[in-house]
Amino acid sequence: MPFTVLLVDDEPLVRAGLRAVLEAQPDIEVVGEAADGAAVIPLVNRLRPDVVAMDVRMPLMDGIEATRLVLRTVPDPPKILVVTTFENDEYVYEALRAGADGFLLKRARPAEIVHAVRLVAEGESLLFPAAVRQLAAEYGTNEARAALERAALTDREEEVLRLVARGLSNAEIAAGLTVGIETVKTHVSSILAKLGARDRTQAVIAAYESGFVAPS
């Protein structure tokens, strides 16, 4: 079955460009479009896409609030890929904090767009560019540091979290640590549970905000 995608952007040309790129792939199907975040919930409930490619800046409801609504109200919500013009946009960071799973620049090359959708849909790696890592570090708080300390990660879990923060997939982490992929999945699940994180992106935000990982 192909990955299904809902496109949400107030610019028709952007939606048309994304549709053309994605529908050229045999494993990706665009199942719908919306021009504003306010239209996302009914479309997600009706179409049940695997991924929502969501513009972060829209006139009626921006991608941040739309992301929050999807995650709060939709059972088994789709992955959310934030699409924006500027990589250092604080809106992007807020969308990731709200629960978005990845990040894509509108000027990305077709191969990068396809890769981003597949990566987010599969959920075993993440898109977390250097500019957003820097923002996360700048937003660091004593509360974030205390929360990481309370999580009491084991030495191996700390090692895995650092590798996740570098954007490595479970398979890449397993190869680097010379362990089985199921072992890595177990460690990642434990990290998410201890941090109270919904997914890898939220765990990495916690790692940067707490100062556990520094932006390179």
Automatic annotation (TrEMBL):
It holds the Pfam family Response_reg. The keyword Transcription regulation applies. Keywords: DNA-binding, Phosphoprotein, Transcription, Transcription regulation. This is Response regulator transcription factor. Residues 146-211 form the HTH luxR-type domain. SMART domains: HTH_LUXR (SM00421), REC (SM00448). The modification 4-aspartylphosphate is found at D55. Residues 4-121 form the Response regulatory domain.
